[in-house]
Structures are given as C-alpha cells and as structure tokens.
Amino acid sequence: MHFNGRSIRIVPLALSLSLLVCTAAWGASKQKGPVIEPKARQVLQQVGDFMKSAERFTFSMEATREVVMETGQKIQYGSVHEIAVRKPDGVKVISDGDQGDFKLWYDGSRITLLSVERNTYSSAEVPGTIDEAFDKMAKERGISPPMISLLYSDPIQILKNKVRSGFYVGLSKVRGVECHQLAFSSKDRDLQIWISTGISPVIRKVVLTNRKEKYSPQFTAYLSGWDFSPVLPDTIFMYILPKSAILADFDSLRPSDSGGN
C-alpha cells in the first residue's frame, strides 16, 4: 500500500459502501436467526475468524455502483479505494472515483474527511475503538468507509445479524483466484460473496443487488492486494491537510448523484 503522493479515482466515501454488505442498510430479520446452509456458514465463519485475528492489514478495492435514471437507464460510477487498518483504533482510506477524490483518517480520537477536489474538510472528535467510532459516525453523520464491516472487531457477525438466508453456490474463480461463492438474502437485498480458498480466506468479490429500488441496481467490488503484515506507524493515521483547506460541515462533502436515482 502506498499512502503518500499517490492518487486514485473513486466514489465518495460518504456514498460508497454504505449500501454494502454488513452495514445498517441491510433490513433486520424478524425471525429468530438466519437460515444459512452448513457449508456456507462454515466458509463464512472461516473468513470471520481469520479477519478477527488480524491486528493490522491493508487492501485495495475496485468498485462499481449503478445509478438508475428516471428513464430506467442504468449509469455506472467507478471507484478505487486503498484502505489501511490497525486495530483497535487506526484507519486510513484513500478514495478516488468518478464522483470525487476523498481521504479519511481515524487516529483513535478524531475522524477527518477531506474532499481533495473541493479542498474542504470536516473533522469530529470520536474517541474509542474503530467499532465505536464508526458506529457513531454512521448513525449521526452517515459516514461509512468502504467495506466498513471488515474494519470491525467481528466483521462477519454483523452480516449474520442482518441476513435471512444463505447458501453455498460452489467453487468459482475471481481474476484467477479460486474462491468459494456464497449467496445471501435479506428482506430487500441480495448479496453474493466470493471468498478465497486456502490458508488465508479473504473476500475477493462482492455483489449487492438492491431489490428495494426500482430496476434493482447493483454494487460490485473486487478486493485485492491483501497484506496482513504491513508497516503502519502512527503517522499513517494522522490527518494531513493542505494549508488552504477550508473547514466545512460533513453534509457539504456529499456530492449529488447525477443519475436521478
């Protein structure tokens, strides 16, 4: 992972994966527990245990989000994210996309979000762990970094709490990597996850279909470059702003979709 002097293009942080797996966007099930096939549950638990044991890691994500226009035509917005995590209280995200370039830092006491193109930023004191800080930010300000569930101390449990059913599809390859393909469903969303086989089970691909919206737009993400032994000093998570950056409200950093969704 490179976090200095490198630009990327992606969907804004405030909008990117707040719709994705394991976030509050999933409708909670009214039944006692999800009905998940044993094989799917086993694979899901493996990746959950593996991610829980990771104290620090970095990964990259390429994402495509569909926006439905009033005519019913779908428009895709592309994005790239680079993410660094050091548990329990360090996060940095560099985002570059069709709708703007953003950077986000969390150092255990403060979350700062910078719109690179607008040269505006917002910052808030949010002490605690990653779980506590981003729960608070999502609830109060609607800010969720890409693949937020993977940053949490128990990422897969969040998914289990939200889905109604799940099953094992079979083996499939994602960009040459053999993966287990799993499918899940909630009240109004369908989710597919591809998890690599072998001793390091990690998520390689995610497809989310939003059945709640007309024409069922999809969100697709490819995850790569997983590193579970990166060097992540404290300085990585300390926000660095341009001298001319202007302080703004978090809401003002949200770009408006041009697709009429």
Describe this structure in words.
There is one protein chain. This protein has 261 residues and is α+β, with helices and mostly antiparallel strands. The chain has one domain: Lipoprotein localisation LolA/LolB/LppX (outer membrane lipoprotein receptor (LolB), chain A). Helices cover 15% and strands 39% of the residues. It has 4 helices and 13 strands. The chain has helices at residues 38-53, 130-141, 148-151, 155-162; strands at 35-36, 56-68, 74-86, 90-97, 100-106, 110-115, 120-125, 165-174, 177-185, 189-196, 203-210, 218-227, 246-247. The chain has a 13-stranded mixed sheet, covered by helices on one side. Strand 4 (90-97) and strand 5 form a beta hairpin. It starts with 34 loop residues before the first strand and ends in a 14-residue tail after the last strand. Mean pLDDT is 84; it is low at 1-31 and 255-261.
Write a brief caption for the model.
The chain is α+β, with helices and mostly antiparallel strands. It has helices at 38-53, 130-141, 148-151, 155-162; strands at residues 35-36, 56-68, 74-86, 90-97, 100-106, 110-115, 120-125, 165-174, 177-185, 189-196, 203-210, 218-227, 246-247.
Features:
outer membrane lipoprotein receptor (LolB), chain A; disordered C terminus; alpha+beta; 4 helices; 15% helix; disordered N terminus; 13-stranded mixed beta sheet; 261 residues
